[in-house]
Design a protein that fits this description.
The complex is a heterodimer of chains A (189) and B (143). Chain A has 189 residues and is α/β, with parallel strands linked by helices. Chain A has one domain: Rossmann fold (3-Layer(aba) Sandwich). Chain A is globular and about 50 Å long. Chain A starts with a strand and ends with a helix. Chain B has 143 residues and is an alpha+beta fold. In chain B, strands 2-1-5-4-3 form a five-stranded antiparallel β-sheet, with helices on both faces. In chain B, β4 and β5 form a beta hairpin. In chain B, α1 runs antiparallel to α3. Chain B is globular and about 40 Å long. The two termini of chain B are 27 Å apart. The chains are: A alpha/beta (189), B alpha+beta (143). At the A-B interface, β2 of A face α2 and α4 of B. The complex binds guanosine-5'-triphosphate and magnesium ion.
């Protein structure tokens, strides 16, 4: 039986809490608080510590799902939860101002998870039709972080099926890199 | 649109008066702050170097995690949270009926009973001074 710990990161309102609620088979642990700054991101609540859920994939792959608060002032929680995880789904809300650059910044903040496991980007809220759309994110990644191999998807965090696909892709990616890693080390001098 | 609580001059003024009163009641108070449920510093009084905005964020995380534990154990929301250490103790609790948390650091020689009763009294006094919060602001659909 394989165990995975996956972190959901990304800016406020991207849908991290929504995604974990869609995916989890257990009652989620939530730490929502009333959002004081609705003029910044217009939603009733925001995560102030973590989200936690669990899902079993296939016969025996147990996945623990941790969501972080998106707001940077909670970055001490990022540091705590990062240590537990081996992979990350970075959600980015397409309709936020400067969403593409925000993705790059958050990827840099969570770079160690890329080194240790794997990262996938899910662009959410594309159905609203106000953001730059998927291609802009892939292009920015290629131009600005050409060393990163990070798949980019559009995803609706409210949709469990779509989230499962993204999660399974990430886990396949992590397992593949883990399999290749010893071989790569063996050829290093 | 309503003004954010942490920028509401009335709340800041009443909060400052309440925290100052608390320091008089318990001179062992090293630091006391009011913060929004989502971790913005509203007002604080301090006799120490503390980064107010960071402390506010951390307090709100602790408050939410304590509520989550209370829910998990089916004992309801936490009434207060105590963190003890050799160099001081932290007590935090909600202002009744408000999306506001009071968090305070006391010198280690202070008895927990006194610190707790002072913090509670301060929270109750402040609650009486503030208008009832809009219920939407209190509704955090956690569970
Ligand atoms: N239209 C649309 N709405 C979405 C989509 N994904 C998420 N949402 C909505 O956007 C909001 C996302 O909120 P959360 O899940 O709380 O966001 P979060 O990333 O956890 O935010 P913080 O915890 O505050 O950092 C919710 O109201 C979702 O219903 C999407 O693809 N399309
Ligand atoms: Mg959230």
């Amino acid at each position: 039986m394989a165990e995975h710990v996956i972190l959901f990161a990304g800016p406020m309102g991207a849908g991290k809490t929504t995604a974990i609620r869609s995916l989890s088979e257990i009652e989620v642990v939530s730490t929502e608080a009333a959002n004081s700054e609705r003029h910044v991101v217009d939603k009733a609540t925001t995560t102030v510590a973590l989200d936690y859920g669990e899902i079993t994939l296939g016969d025996d792959d147990k996945v623990r799902l941790y969501g972080v608060p998106g707001q940077k002032r909670f970055d001490f929680m990022w540091a705590i939860l990062k240590k537990r995880a081996r992979g990350m789904i970075m959600l980015v809300n397409d309709d936020a101002p400067d969403a593409v650059q925000t993705m790059i910044e958050y990827l840099d903040d969570f770079r160690d998870l890329y080194e240790r496991g794997g990262v996938i980007v899910g662009v959410s809220r594309t159905d609203l039709g106000v953001g730059p759309g998927l291609a802009a994110y892939s292009a920015a990644l290629q131009a600005q972080r050409p060393d990163l191999i990070v798949p980019v998807f559009t995803v609706d965090p409210r949709d469990a099926g779509q989230m499962r696909t993204v999660l399974m892709t990430l886990i396949a990616n992590i397992e593949m890199r883990a399999m290749l890693a010893p071989a790569a080390e063996a050829v290093a001098p | 649109m309503n003004q954010p609580i942490h920028q509401d001059q009335f709340v800041i003024g009443e909060g400052h008066a309440a925290l100052s009163g608390m320091c008089e009641l318990a001179p062992s108070t090293i630091y006391a702050a009011l913060l929004t449920d989502d971790g913005f510093d509203i007002v604080h009084v301090s006799r120490t170097q503390t980064e107010a905005s960071r402390f506010a964020s951390m307090s709100s995380s602790i408050q939410a995690l304590s509520d989550a534990v209370g829910h998990e154990l089916r004992i309801g929301d936490s009434e207060y949270v105590i963190m003890g250490s050799a160099q001081g103790h932290v007590i935090q609790l909600r202002i009744p009926g408000q999306p506001i948390v009071l968090a305070a650091l006391f010198q280690p020689h202070e008895t927990l009973g006194k610190a707790l009763s002072t913090a509670r009294l301060t929270a109750e006094r402040l609650a009486q001074r503030l208008p009832a919060a809009a219920s939407a602001a209190m509704a955090a659909p956690n569970f």
